[in-house]
Records
---
Amino acid sequence: MKYRKLGSSDLTVSEISLGSWLTYGVGVEKDLAVRCVDRAFELGINFFDTANVYGRGAAESFLGEVLAKRPRDSYILATKVFFPMSDEDRGLSRPQILKQIDASLQRLRVDYIDLYQCHRYDSGTPLEETMQALSDVVRQGKARYVGFSEWSPGQIAAAFGLPGVERFVSSQPQYSLLWRQPEKKVIPLCREKHVSQIVWSPLAQGVLTGKYLPDSPPPADSRASSETMGHFIQRLTERPVLEAVQKLKPVARDAGCTLSQFALAWVLREPNVASAIVGASKPEQLDENAASSGIAVDPALFARAEAIAAAVTPAS
């Protein structure tokens, strides 16, 4: 496993990180989930990403239980705040941030969170209020650093324009061969501000594994066929997308790796990406994904893959 520095922080994170969206505490049986976390450590993964809203606290509670047996300095823990936790609890107001950080710490069974992220931008709360509350969380020792997910370039710039507040060190955008929007504005701005990307859905929710075939129903044990995990994958399983993905397989073969490894290596080719978050419902998936760290791929093969994906990728 290779490691990269996270923005302007002193955190060094594994190039492959383990996420818990739609999986732990919700969609994956507990014993399998525990085995996945244990296998992550064996593979050198030191970065774990979650959010308070995943399973309305269930994912954090699961991670808190399974990580409690390990030394606190053996892993880097990230969580998020914004989405509704109840009919009244939502957003990035000062009362909410102070309330939700304490709830997350309790569920995660830790004294501090390494990276506390705004899950989205809260247009209903003044940015100054949000940033001051995040700064207080850091200065109280409850979080070491702060980040954001899916903020616009204007919102990012505005946060950096505020005096006397903590600076973001990370951005968490969707980014993959099938979704390249951050490249145009977000990544250049973040590079300038010393903010690293922690990308979600680098395998396009499993579509870039190549396991979904245009003329076949999804595998029975896949995300697309799961009632609890399959709600967000519809666009990615449209026929033109699946046909393009099948054309990527020979390119990956020429690179000497699986399609999953090729897709992750493609994301990691971008120096501003510190880590690619993967989901895993069984340890074997982590074995394959972790092997993508450090893979050397001919840039000409990446260019071939980009040309294939361009036909079904939204314009950036």
Note: The CA atoms of residues 179 and 281 lie 23 Å apart.
---
Amino acid sequence: MVTKNILKQPKSIVEVTITVPWTDLQATWDQTLQREASDVELSGFRKGQAPLAMVEQNLGIKLQDEVLKVAMPNFLIEALKGTDIIPIDYPKYDLISFVKGQQLQFKATITNRPAVSVGNYKTIKVSRPTPKPVIEEEVQKVLDDLFKRWKSRPGIQPVNSGQQQSSGGQTGSTPTQSGSISFQGGQQTQAPTNGQAEGPNEEFAKAMGAISLADLKNKIRKDLEANVSYNNELDFEEAILQEVEKITTVELPEILIADELNRMLVSLQRRVADMGLLLEDYLKSQGKTLEQLKNEWRVQAEKNVRMELGLAEVARAENVTISDEELKAEIDKIQDNKVKQQFEAQEPRLHLRHALRQTRTLDLLKKMIGG
């Protein structure tokens, strides 16, 4: 009879000591031996035809290792049936004792899904921030920037051949949120160079896809207002999540904190790469080591994990789910086939389902809070 001893430790660590009699293990041993024997070549025998006793002796400790690879996870799953333990990481196995014909004893260390308690989230009070109005100076700044880049695009030829063409501008997009303004390529345009102060004009406005200069200004204003509204909504959501974090009680497993720190590090690496730097060069410029950086981030990482677990608990309490059809519809939106193929595997689909569930839960909280 298989016996188990479960010891719960702080930070959701669980140690499970399992004892398996030989009678419960012998079938796994024999099946593993048969499987391994099919690939063994011994002198005087065809491949896979050597006597099992000789194969067993030849394999030695390798056979035991192969048996344990199969047996320990299976017996751990059996041991956890009927308990409230749900592992959130890969178990660490430690062999205590095992000899063929005798009992197997091993210890598995796992991180249990932590118990999460969230206060009365239905009473959260958060005011939606008032959007800051777009002022004329902001519109003019974008307009002037677009004009400078328009003049410096390839193909713009000055009327006065004695003057040099501007260089170094970027083309193809605008700094606005909605993308309603765009350069029209393929045509050479003469920029006025009559000695007078140059500035945005009707010709430039039409090149940008607008009817007139006034229409272009209006498009810029709408783009800026859309950007303000978008950021305002992000601030509102962040304020809600901060309140959820405050009323969430959980003993944070170390592995979840480590995962969040790694996520934050990957995000930093991407930002640093965008600046054309290596992470180690960036750290040197800051006079910090990687460990120092992670230590500085730890408090924020703990808040992020607590916030994530709190929102997931709200989802559970409100029975928020994502159906298979909704998940498929989200995957079907992906245009890049290589990216889409990644979601044929189970793990990416689980991550996407979780992300969609968290987003839906946040939308539910926004409706509850109003503002």
Note: The two ends are 61 Å apart (CA to CA).
---
Amino acid sequence: MLSPDRLQFHSGNLMIDRPSWQGLPPLAGLCTFEDAQRSALSVEHCVAWMKRHHYLLVRLHEIFTARITAEPVYELKTAFSLHAFLCAEHASAFRQRIGELREPPLGLEVVPDASLKLLCDEVLCSPGQAELVLGLYEVIVPAVIESLKRYSTTTNPLADAPSVRVTRFCLLEMDDIVAFGRRAVECLIDPTTRERLATWRKLLDECLLRAGGSGKLVQSKVWSPLGDDERQSQVPIAALAQATTDLSPPSPQFSVTPFQYDPVPKRDARFQDSFNAGVNPEAFLYDEQFATRDKVLMLLYKRLREIDVPEMMASILHQTAGKPWKYYRDMTRQLWDEARHAMLGEVGFVHLGLDWTRIPISFTWSRNLNTQLEPWERHAVLFFIEQGLMPRMGKRYEWEVGQHSGIPLAGLFQDFDWADEVLHAQIGREWYVKEFKDLNEAMSYGDRCWSHVLSHWSSDRENGLTQHRNWWPDIYRAACERWGVSPDPAALAFNATYESIRADLKGISASG
């Protein structure tokens, strides 16, 4: 029989032998015996601290979502979509963990600290892109990261192993968020802008200090809000999660005026002629006379144009209150998927060596829905479209086009796009269809809501917003030149518009 090896560890001033078989790591590799003897945080203290993490993740989700539609820069619009989803995911994980720690009712909707609330309100209400990027990526997200790190090194890593695991996964993706954010700050905030925002930046720092400091985000009468090591060594660690209301928040600046959601999509200068509805890609896609390779161009356009889905879904999320948290998590997953689909279209054009900025990427769908329908009606239209993509002449057909096009990347992208849309239809069945007698009633309502949306096709042209230029021949010629082939005369002559036919090839309302 093999003899166990010996490990040594400290117990007070004594060195004690501890058997470990063949030198295997003890305690399942989670930590050392020394770390496993921490007695700093009780369950109550852990819950109080994690509730602050949860609060900030939920508020970050709110801020990212609320600013997607009106943010003109495409890279920020897509990043906000991803970051909102990541925050929703980790907020969900903390909600579950807190619920495991003797916490019913959870009280997760209670604001844990007035200064943290002001911090988030200030960033939500920030008047411009620079303020928003600075507040998100240089203040709130780094504060969350530092607090997560402190939590991991303070709590007992064995007794509280499930919380440490949730914290580690959160840290991994918060680090990804802040890495993007650092680059965004470098690109968008020059010294003059930073100097202009210095007073407001100090206000955000003061909010953190009054809430307990960026390392803890938990205040106490005796806990040093500055996180000073010398003072920390004199303070019992148990004071960490004993929140008080002794420190009132500083005076607000931007949030003196409550946040007003802007439902009108904004686009940066690369997006030209955004009211253009002069090309109906669905009419081309389902016409059997055209080659699958040529149809890929329309598929890529449809994917890139899907940036208007996050612009619309963000309005649903921001303007819908009182739903279970899982609703917001699931809907944000779909929002992120749609932003990812837009980037698939972007990559597809890059892959073919084509300049997508020569194509008018319309925002009229999101703009019309956001300004003409209520949030529930927008959700109805969204589900009607998603469910309509499930039959044979929907996402499967688009995948088949990609597969037979001779462009492998197109087939791959459509494969994943199809898988995502199946998930989205399931999300719709969970959060939309259950409010109706059956699927048919839910579909009929969505169809009616979409039919009530005025297209403004003619009035947009009459008001000089667009001439509905047929951009298709130019991009098709450019593609054929890249492919080294002659354009198909029938494809080159394609000129179907959205004047009277919507994306599912049904008639649409004209402007009054």
Note: The beta strands are 5-11, 14-20.
